[in-house]
Specification:
- This protein has one domain.
- Helices cover 84% and strands 0% of the residues.
- The chain is rod-shaped.
- With 113 residues, the protein is mainly α.
- The two termini are 15 Å apart.
Length: 113
């Protein structure tokens, strides 16, 4: 069915479709984890500020933002964002590959009509 000189084979298109179908949950989980951690920054800052001995709220927050625990949290947030974005970009690349395949298939049908 597929041409031997096709840029994207039918097998590659099928593999792409399967990848999308099999990784939807992982992408959703990665996005949910990133969103949760991003929203959790406020909670971490609040908890660290509450533990501070500084007198003013501004000083307590500044101390919290400079705290090693907050820095570690940001590192974890960065890893969650990288995981989410890598999956997101993979979806974009796989979708683009499928779009090319569809176009090639449509062009092939036109030439055989």
């Amino acid at each position: 069915m597929g041409m031997t000189n096709q840029i994207i084979s039918d097998a590659e298109a099928e593999e792409s479709i399967n990848w999308l179908a099999n990784n939807d949950y992982e992408l959703a989980a990665a996005q949910a984890q990133y969103n949760r951690m991003n929203e959790g920054k406020k909670v971490v800052i609040a908890e660290l500020s509450r533990a501070s001995k500084a007198k003013s709220a501004k000083d307590r927050e500044a101390e919290a933002l400079a705290c090693a625990e907050y820095s570690e949290y940001l590192d974890q947030l960065q890893e969650a964002e990288k995981h989410y974005l890598s999956l997101r970009y993979r979806v974009t690349a796989v979708t683009a590959k499928l779009d090319v395949w569809r176009t090639l298939q449509a062009n092939q049908r036109k030439t055989h009509v």
